[in-house]
Structures are given as C-alpha cells and as structure tokens.
Amino acid sequence: MAGEPQEEAKKIVVGLVVEADEGDLGQADIGDAKVPDIAHDQAGGLEEQNVEKKDKLAQKPGDVMESTGTASVAQGVLDDHADIQKAQAESQEHPSDKRKSLLRIGPGLITGVADDDPSGIGTYSVAGAQFGYQLLWLAPLCMPLMIAVQEMCARSALVTNKGLSAIIKEHYSKWLLYSVLMLLIGANTINVYADINIMAASMKMLFGLPFALWATVLTIVMVVAQITVPYKHYVKFLKYACFSLLAYVVIALLPQVHVNWNLVVYHMVIPQWNSSPGYVLTIVGFLGTTISPYLFFWQAGEQVEDDIADGHTDDAGYRASPINRSEIRSIRSDTAVGMIFSQIITIFIIIATAATLHVSGKTDINTAEDAARALLPLGASAYWLFTLGILGVGLMAVPTLAGSAAYAVAETAGWRNGLYRRFSRAKGFYATIALVTVVGYLLNFVQVISPVKALLYSAVLNGLVAPPLIVVLLFICNNRKIVGNNVNGWLSNTLGWLAVVLMSLAGGLLIWSIFTSGKAA
C-alpha cells in the first residue's frame, strides 16, 4: 500500500468502536457523529469525505471495546479498502458493460444454478420415479413465482444496499427479525446435513471407502475453500461440474429411452391431483426446493457484494450515484435467466427418471445408487456422471446455504460481512459459515436416514418455512419508506401472494394428511 493512503487513513478520529477480537471494525461501528470516511477519488486514490452515518446497528455488549489509538483503526480501514479494491479489480476483468449483462455470472444466475442443489435433484428424482410425469405441471407454475420472489430479493438489496436481515432489523420489530433468523438457520442447517449426506454417499458408491471419511473430507474441503478461496473463483470452477446435470437432458432425448412426449405435454399443462400423503409430501418438497428461503437471503447478499465490486456503493451502504432503470432491468433479466435455466433442468430430471425408473417399476428410491440408475442408458459412466453432478451442485449449494445464514446472522449482529473480505476482517461472518456447515455434518452421525429421503424431507422443511418469509418480503417491497418508488407492481404482488397461498395450502394439506393417515409417505 502506498505511503500517501497510509498517512491519509491515520487521520481518522479516535473514538470509533471496534470489536474485541484484534480490532475488527464492523460496518455498524461508526457513531452518529460525522467522521472522516475513506473513499475513492477519480484518480483511484483516497480522499476524505464527511458523511452522516445514519445506520447504527446494535452490537452485543461483550463484542466491543473503545480504541485507545488510531493505529489499529487506520490499518483496519486500509485492509477494508484493499479488499474492496481487489473485488473491483476482479469485476473489471469481465467484458465491457455492454456485454457484461449477457456474459457474466450474476447473482441471479448463481442462484438459479444453486436452486438445482442435491436437495432439488433428490426431490425431482423422487417425483419422476414415484409419480412418472404427473408432477410436471409444477415446473411451469413455479417458474414465474420464483422469478418474482427472487427479483424482489435482488431489487430490495439494490435499492437499500442492505441484505434482508439488515432491512428487517432497521424497519421492523426484533421478534420478527429473530423469528426469521431462527427459521432460516434451522432450515439451512438441515439442508446442509442432507446435502453432505448424499455427497458422501455418492463418493462411497464410487470408491467404497467409509461414509464417515467422505463426509469429513468434504466438510473440511468446503469450509477451508470458503475461507481461503474467493467465492467468485470458486463458482467459476464448479460451474463446469454442474454441466453434468445436462446428462438428464441427453437421457430424455436418447432414442432408446422411450419418452411419451404426448404425456409430457399433457401433464405440463393439466395439473393432476392425488390426495395421498406421499403425493402431497412431494408437492410440498417440490415447491420448497424450488422457492427456497436460503436463496432469498443469498441473492440479496450477493447483490450488495456485486454493487460494491462494480463501484456503485461502498461497504457502509452509501451509493455514489442514483439507481437507474437499467440496473433494475439488469437484475430482472439476470434473475429470469437463472430461474428459467433451473426449471429447464428440473423438467428434464423428472422426464429422465420417469422414463427410466418409473416405467421399469423402480418407484421407491432411497440411495445414491437408486437415483443414479436414471442415467444408466448412458452406460457405465452413469454413476460417475451422477456423482460429478451431485458434487458440483453440492459444493456450490452448501456454501450458499451456510453463506446465506452467515449474511443474516452478521447483519443482525452488526458484524462486517461479505465473501469479498478476508477472514481476518470478517471473522464472525466466516465463523458462522463454518459453524452451520459443521453442525450439518455432525447431524449425519445423530440420525441415520436414507440419503434421498433426507433430501426430500429437507425440501419439505423449506416448503413449510418459505411462506411467512415471502410475506415479510412482500411487506418490504411494498413499503415506500424502504424501497422508495421501486415498490412492487401489480404483477409482482400477484405472483408473490400466489406463491404464499399455494405453498401455505400445500403445507396445510400435508399436515392434515399426516395427522389423518398417520404417515407422510
């Protein structure tokens, strides 16, 4: 770092509040008084600005202490500035702005890929194997709903420069904030458990070593990678592994796999109903793995990080320029592309499993081997392709699950957060990622359950948790005090409330059917 910025940063006034662990300065640590702030000038250097820090997020009493000098504060600001510069430099490596929206991996596309996580693959495989083509109607129904919900998440983050937990904390009561936080953490931890379960089971299927060994190795790799490897680089590598999901598309199009395309079209257009608990359970799981709570918080957090990387805002949430309509259009197109891709894969997973497993009478799938048999028309490579796909989406989804929980916890606690930050500057954030991942790993040794059933049940949990969170999101996006003139239009509100009604109705029917029949599947 150059000497001039170093001297500039040391002019920061004494009295800033810093976290007790080695002077970690959080974004909520600046008081109400005007203080000098470090910002970019047009030449790329540093300059001081007097800005009013309006948002003072609460800190736990044991987390802070008063600084007795400016050295640690100045060094912290320089470290934060270096992290932001690095993120912006990586963003500038992408194509020009005109081509960026088409070629770059945006939050919406990442969210769409993460939506087809192991839980999704397991749930869609169960749907196809057990019920054939009957549940295909849910895919075109869910597509506009998930686009509307995820667009609201991204738009609220773009307008406020805050994640969802920070917005709820600022504008709503504490009981709502903590209720949302507990629902999210609980659902995410169970999802991590199920994802690690199927990933380890898939590795055991191929290599035969103990399940516990693979679960341990995978957990260590994911935690270390999240802390040491920038997520943008991590995703660029894993997206190639996710291409193995296209094997389901190939299966459906192979001439030796006799897909009844007339039935496919019929069931995509005409909803089928079955009051059996297993059918209702699968519907709730389908809705829950498609419109998942963790994706709400993840896309909002990633949108804030993208704005920082693109130089639109600083890490304290202050924009250098007003939001323009092109930014709104960009997040809508990015979200739509991601969600459409997700549902295309969903449709072909159901078609492939229906045309292979269901027609052959294999309707009850419990293990990784059972699920992988849908790819057997491709020959001996079927198990390798299945494992590669599960690992690719799993290694992407588990950090997404843990990361969305970490965004929510850090925003609630007022900690510095963001995957662009180094570990030493966001310890609480990264510790939460590690904790959620490790707890999910440990659950595999508490309750033994078949890998595919674990995926389905975790999706069902998402389906039960999502409706109240969507209601909160609708309140946020219709509140002009929060989003200004960027409130929901009639279409967003209609689709959002439709998602709430359908998911609540399905969840209610599931609970009723379980109590009246005495079993879930």
Structure in a nutshell:
The chain contains 21 helices and four strands. With 521 residues, the protein is mainly alpha-helical. 50% of the residues are buried.
Describe this protein's structure.
It is a single chain. By secondary structure, the protein is mostly helical. The protein is built from 21 helices and 4 strands. The protein has a two-stranded antiparallel sheet with strand order 1-4. Strands 2-3 form a two-stranded antiparallel ribbon. It is globular and about 65 Å long. The N terminus is likely disordered.
Q: Topology of this protein?
A:
Layout (H helix, E strand, L loop, with lengths): L2 H7 L7 E3 L15 E6 L5 E6 L12 E3 L4 H22 L4 H7 L3 H9 L2 H14 L6 H23 L3 H8 L2 H34 L3 H18 L2 H12 L4 H7 L7 H9 L7 H14 L2 H17 L15 H34 L9 H5 L9 H32 L13 H17 L7 H27 L2 H4 L6 H28 L4
Antiparallel strand pairs: 1-4, 2-3
Features:
4 strands, 521 residues, two-stranded antiparallel sheet, disordered N terminus, mainly alpha, two-stranded antiparallel ribbon
Q: In what range is the share of β-strand residues?
A: under 5%
**Largest beta-sheet details:** 2 strands, antiparallel
Q: State the helix count.
A: 21
| Oligomerization | single chain
Low-confidence residue ranges: 1-68, 95-103
Number of strands: 4
User: What share of the residues lie within helices?
Assistant: 55-70%
Characterize the overall form: globular
- Radius of gyration (Å): 23 Å
Structural class: mainly alpha
